[in-house]
Design a protein that fits this description.
Layout lengths: L2 H15 L5 H12 L17 H14 L4 H16 L14 E11 L2 E11 L12 H17 L2
Antiparallel strand pairs: 1-2
The protein binds zinc ion.
């Protein structure tokens, strides 16, 4: 999943459930949601910052801190891990174990019928590499998110 999707999805969820959304909360969510991919600069992508060993205790600390934005930052971080679980693997106890899990959901359809195949994926995080991906759908999602922000934050 690319940073545009990681930023847009929690913001749309926040805008849907918040009675009085604020720009500060949106900024905290977005920064938290894209922050975990900084570990792409480490030896392995989806490593330390994709581990629940770091994210869950920091979520607890953020809630305990009394700072209004810290929990939103960690909710954005946890949303990143949740979304990556559906687009590859996340290593929940990295660095104790490099093994990661995710769910692959594939839809297949055509003149002969339609089907959905769900399977658990188990592998190790990807080594760091350059990537070349199509982001047209992500840009469309970002534009929808920006429109929702303009409507809700007037
Ligand atoms: Zn990621």
């Amino acid at each position: 999943m690319d940073p545009l999707e990681h930023a847009s999805i929690p913001v749309l969820a926040y805008l849907a459930i918040s009675n009085e959304p604020t720009w500060g909360a949106v900024a905290a969510l977005v920064i938290g949601a894209v922050f975990p991919d900084l570990d792409a600069f480490c030896r392995e992508h989806r490593s330390y910052l994709h581990s629940l060993l770091f994210a869950l205790p920091l979520f607890g600390l953020a809630c305990w801190s009394g700072n209004g934005y810290a929990p939103l930052f960690t909710v954005g971080w946890l949303s990143h891990i949740f979304l990556d679980f559906f687009t590859g693997v996340i290593p929940p106890v990295y660095p104790l174990s490099r093994r990661g899990w995710g769910i692959s959901i594939r839809a297949r359809g055509g003149p002969r019928g339609f089907g959905i195949k769900v399977r658990m994926v188990e592998s190790y995080p990807d080594p760091r590499h350059d990537y070349d991906i199509e982001i047209g759908g992500s840009v469309a999602l970002l534009l929808v998110t920006l429109a929702a922000l303009l409507i809700r934050m007037h």
